[in-house]
Specification:
Radius of gyration: 16 Å
Order of helices and strands: EEHEHEHEHHHHEHEHH
Helix content: 40-55%
Shape: globular
Largest sheet: 7 strands, mixed
Strand order of the largest sheet: 1-3-2-4-5-6-7
């Protein structure tokens, strides 16, 4: 499948950092980080194919398709090398890019993600459910996993974001996760890596981030208390400074 020109929002100045979104979200999932990051970096937030304002090609997609889209975005912006930050599906895309195209990635941050997320049948079933009933069919259950009970933000906002995701885009990305297995590629990642886990994440618990850190060449783990899957939105006071500290290291 050919790369697509994903929708991107660019702000700030300085070294380039690209933020890659989770399944069912848009570039707006990084709103809590944007203002602080813009003080240090040129921030490129984009919508993964099939999400937000990006094109929605017919699925299924593969993780290489998502990595190809990110390379095409960097090429379009004339950026030879960038810091890459991704959460969940965005983290999977970032890992594949860093392993496959190490020359394009300076420093890497992986949030609430996994190199392999079985069982595949669960993702295939979710894709079928979304194609039949739209992303709204899974929105409430998805957002329930995104935050802990103590989260005081607007859950309706996030549920609406998931529900607005094009069905084919959401389903195609589910199929990419179903067939993805990056475990044997982690040792190829040479970019200094910060892995961030939500202590209460039911989707990608800390053990999955620990496995990434153990296999990558230069990686460390931060576990954030009172955070589930969308940890960056629930605990920006902890996560945003940690990202800046990691990305600014030479």
């Amino acid at each position: 499948m050919s790369a697509v020109d994903v929708h991107a929002v660019i702000s700030g100045s300085g070294p380039v950092v690209v933020l890659s979104n989770s399944l069912g979200s848009t570039h707006r999932m990084w709103d809590a980080q944007a203002a602080e990051l813009e003080r240090h970096f040129t921030v490129v937030r984009y919508d993964t194919r099939g999400h937000g304002e990006s094109p929605v090609p017919q699925g299924p997609y593969r993780i290489d398709d998502l990595a190809d889209d990110l390379v095409a975005l960097l090429d379009r912006l004339d950026v030879a090398r960038a810091h890459v930050v991704g959460l969940s599906l965005g983290g999977m895309t970032a890992m594949r890019l860093a392993a496959r195209n190490p020359e394009r990635v300076d420093r890497l941050a992986l949030l609430c993600t996994a190199a392999h997320l079985p069982p595949a049948d669960a993702w295939i079933d979710r894709a079928a459910k979304v194609r039949a009933g739209g992303s709204a069919a899974v929105a409430a259950a998805v957002v329930q996993r995104w935050f802990t009970e103590r989260y005081r933000g607007d859950r309706a906002y996030w549920q609406e974001m998931v529900a607005a995701t094009p069905a084919e885009g959401y389903a195609g990305c589910c199929e990419a996760i179903a067939e993805m297995d990056l475990r044997e590629q982690l040792s190829r990642i040479q970019a200094p890596t910060l892995a961030i886990a939500g202590a209460d994440d039911p989707a990608t618990p800390p053990a999955m981030l620990e496995a990434i850190v153990a296999a990558a060449a230069d990686a460390r783990l931060l576990v954030v208390d009172d955070a589930a899957h969308l940890a960056n939105a629930q605990q920006p006071e902890i996560i945003t400074p940690a990202l800046i500290e990691h990305l600014e290291k030479s």
